[in-house]
Amino acid sequence: TKSLRETMKEVIPPKQEQLKKLKVEHGQTVVGDVKVDNIIGGMRGLKAMLWEASVLDPIEGIRFHGLSIPDCQKVLPAAPAGKEMIPESMLWLLLTGQVPTAEQTKELSRELAEKGDLPKFVEDLVDSFPRSLHPMTQLGMGVAALNHDSQFQAAYEKGIKKSEYWTHTLEDSINLIARLPALAARIYRNVYKPGTELAGVQKDLDLVGNYSNMLGYGHNETLTEYLRLYIALHGDHEGGNASAHTAHLVGSTLSDPYLSYSAALFALAGPLHGLANQEVLRWQLAMQKELGDKISQEDIKAYLWKTLNSGQVVPGYGHGVLRNPDPRFIALQEFCDSRSDLKSSPIIDLVNKTFQVAPNVLKEHGKTKNPYPNVDATSGCVLYHYGLTEFKYYTVIFGVSRALGCLTQLVWARALGLPLERPKSLSMDALTKIIKQ
Ligand code: FAM
């Protein structure tokens, strides 16, 4: 069977040809207009970025190299004793556009475990942070510090050909993904369980098997399986979202993958993006506390209106692109439905009940373009159910996941020789001048 590197060497030349052809034959073809609304509206809907691994359809949701989430759940290999697709098989798909075999997936798991230990100075750095420093700040700083060992940076300093950039970018990306569980678990231990022992990386476990074990949940196979699904599902969501776009922008300066992904993590840390999952749980628990045990649809409706009337957003609802319930939300709901303990969990029940009411309330409210749940409407609840109740940590798990897509695109950006990103900005006066012309 072919290795990941051999597969990449095969799939890159046809893509380079495709890009060359696009440039030569269609370089001047118009694919859309730029409206003033796009410029002042956060560039919504503007087709202005190349992103190979996934495309987001407003109705169908995300597709990874053409495969929908249910497709991926059918074909992507699971952990040896598990059923859910694992991040390794998703990473292989994102990078190569091909579905890996069980053997290829296992080999990637083995490689990641082999490379999973943190350098001592990063352990010391993370241990020196105050416990009160937000876990996302710690993660971003830890990832940036890992660039001490960047192969790309070392090779660039020595002087390498542009055509070789991608190989070093790939090595850095694999090393970074391998080290994320140990880094993220160390942050969890330091902040929430200080003084307890931290398990080491086990060479025979898959990436999330190790992560769950280091978090102290290795004994809980359902939670470990959930984390596998969650981390595989969140791996990529097109290029325009804030974290992916940040990684791409920073990477386009030829910053190494560690620095690029560190920057992406700080975008993920914003409440309108990755921090939403912590907000959802806080909000649902406050609802539970206020409304008590027997909550009716009318109660939920009134609570939703109270949130909206106080000028706040309903966390976990709405999306920059999606205009339907997020298929990632559906996949996580199905996971819960298939396990009796989760099905009867009060917090998961409340998420379900909210889903039955919220879209109509949001439609009536009339502001959001998408009244349906996004993935964050449910993602934290299973963690909460199994005792991983530290909300502030949830975005870190998202951050372990999103590395798959952001780093894949960095490899492709280097393989395709994409240039420095540099859009044109305008002042309002300059814009007005153009309008008057
Ligand atoms: N509750 C109340 N109002 C909402 C809303 C919600 N869930 N979602 C959007 N709106 C409002 C929005 O604030 C805006 O109001 P103003 O015109 O007064 O500024 C209006 O509806 C139009 O917004 P939109 O075009 O529908 O959404 P955007 O593309 O601007 O924003 C989100 C998208 C996700 C930031 C937005 O829907 C939101 O704030 N949702 C709640 C937070 C959340 O769940 N974020 C998670 C996103 C997730 F996918 C992720 O990145 N992890």
TrEMBL record:
It is found in: Mitochondrion. Its main location: mitochondrion. Pfam families: Citrate_synt. GO terms for molecular function: acyltransferase activity, acyl groups converted into alkyl on transfer. The keyword Transferase applies. One of its GO terms (cellular component) is mitochondrial matrix. Keywords: Mitochondrion, Transferase, Transit peptide. The active site is at H273, H319, D376. InterPro entries: Citrate_synth-like_lrg_a-sub, Citrate_synth-like_sm_a-sub, Citrate_synthase, Citrate_synthase_AS, Citrate_synthase_euk, Citrate_synthase_sf. GO terms for biological process: carbohydrate metabolic process; citrate metabolic process; tricarboxylic acid cycle. Belongs to the citrate synthase family. PANTHER family: CITRATE SYNTHASE, CITRATE SYNTHASE 3, MITOCHONDRIAL. This is Citrate synthase. It comes from Panaeolus cyanescens.
